[in-house]
Design goal:
Blueprint (H helix, E strand, L loop, with lengths): L3 E8 L7 E6 L6 H7 L9 E8 L15 H22 L5 E6 L1 H12 L6 E5 L20 E7 L7 H13 L3 E7 L8 H15 L11
């Protein structure tokens, strides 16, 4: 059953960190894979990382680009409720919070941002889009000015460019401070350029600044 079954904590001690970073894995992945692919390549000090684990290795069984079914809505609601609980928990510590994820984890992070509850200070969506299609009933309560970094691969097999573009439009209309990058030759993976952007955003938050999102591609 989707939803969070446990959370891996890495990096700085939670009570002493300058930033709390929640990073959500993709479909058929794990926190351990996110540690290898993303977290261990970051260099900003004093960051506490919270890596939730999905039951059954997925946050919902449907595809993000399919119309929302009753089953998808129910599974998504459970996963979002669990994610919101983690955001509330780390928010209570008093440090900035960055919410991010890859693939299905990026989609879940975006849906949390659009839910309007317990907003993070910045969102990173590596290969992400909205869940569902235009015309589906979806929340649209984005925090005005929220820094969001959204990426895609030109020929990614899971998140087509149109879904990425629709998410970018929704973020822009919702008032996000958006940077969006398309990587022509990247497969379904996280690139070093994306990791460098995440690192720069964490460094800005740790220094008490809103993320500039100015890292090079």
């Amino acid at each position: 059953m989707p939803g969070i079954v446990d959370t891996m904590t890495l990096g700085a001690a939670v009570g002493r960190a300058k930033v709390q970073c929640i990073f959500v894995h993709g479909r058929n992945q794990s926190p351990e894979e996110m540690e290898v692919a993303v977290i261990r390549h970051l260099s900003t000090p004093d960051i506490a990382f919270h890596l939730p684990r999905a039951g059954g290795k997925c946050w919902y069984h449907g595809l993000a680009v399919d119309p929302r079914s009753d089953a998808t809505n129910a599974e998504l609601a459970q996963s979002l409720a669990d994610l919101a609980a983690i955001v509330r928990l780390v928010r209570a510590l008093g440090q900035p919070v960055l919410l991010g994820g890859f693939s299905q984890g990026a989609c879940l992070s975006l849906e949390h941002a659009f839910s309007g509850q317990d907003s993070a200070d910045a969102v990173v969506a590596f290969t992400g889009c909205r869940v569902g299609v235009p015309g589906d009933a979806r929340p649209d309560s984005l925090t005005e000015g929220l820094p969001v970094y959204l990426t895609a691969g030109r020929a990614d097999p899971w998140i087509p460019l149109q879904a990425f573009a629709d998410a970018a439009v929704a973020l822009g209309q919702g008032g996000a401070r958006l940077r969006a990058d398309v990587f022509p030759a990247r497969g379904h993976a996280v690139s070093l350029a994306e990791i460098a952007m995440l690192d720069a955003m964490l460094a800005d938050l740790a220094a008490g600044r809103s993320p500039a999102m100015g890292a090079a591609r």
